Amino acid sequence: MPGKKTGWIASRSPHRPNPIGLSLVKIESVNPQDNSLAVSGIDLVNGTPVLDLKPYHPADKPLDDQQVRFPPWLDSLQPLGVSWSQTALTQLTAATERGFKFYSDFDQAKQAAEECIKADPRPSDVRTKQEKQGKLGIFAVSLDRIDVAFKFTDKLLVKIINVHYWNDNEIRLPVRTKEW
């Protein structure tokens, strides 16, 4: 994808004309008292509505890896190296004490943040523009009840510099990375 036009469906871009996506998840538990269920393995951004659930059918699964096709640019993407500032680790510890919806402890939240950021969540046009200009910026992702800000220290290295917790009672403002 770097430098080449790719359709937004093929790119798995979070910037879509509508918020509808498709995920295969595992149902962990069902609570009929409050009409809720817990799932794992979800790859949605926090706040994404779940519109429908369908049962998994073995016929949906490809028979082998030869039946799965990937766009050619996928192999060229390299995962980012991720490190944490002491401030961000302290903030994540405090956020863990306040509680998450989807993560049960510090390690799960830390791993989720790292996995998301390793995949370089920047839009491809921003990534390409920054690489051409030699500029490295500050970005943020939202996971569960936290906004995680990270700064590029090199083309493939980032440092998580800030973790901001917000709860369900707060009016959540858009992430403004210039504040960090």
Report what the structure shows.
- There is one protein chain.
- Strands 3-6-5-4 form a four-stranded mixed beta sheet. A two-stranded antiparallel sheet has the order 1-2.
- Strand 5 and strand 6 form a beta hairpin.
- The relative contact order is 0.15.
- Helix content is 22%, strand content 22%.
- The mean pLDDT is 77.
- The chain has 180 residues and is an alpha+beta fold.
Keywords:
180 residues, 4-stranded mixed beta sheet, 4 helices
Task: Summarize the entry for a quick read.
This protein is of the alpha+beta class and 180 residues long. It contains 4 helices and 6 strands; from the N terminus they run H-E-E-E-H-H-H-E-E-E.
What is the topological layout?
Blueprint (H helix, E strand, L loop, with lengths): L7 H4 L14 E6 L4 E5 L40 E4 L1 H13 L7 H13 L5 H10 L4 E6 L2 E9 L2 E9 L15
Parallel strand pairs: 3-6
Antiparallel strand pairs: 1-2, 4-5, 5-6
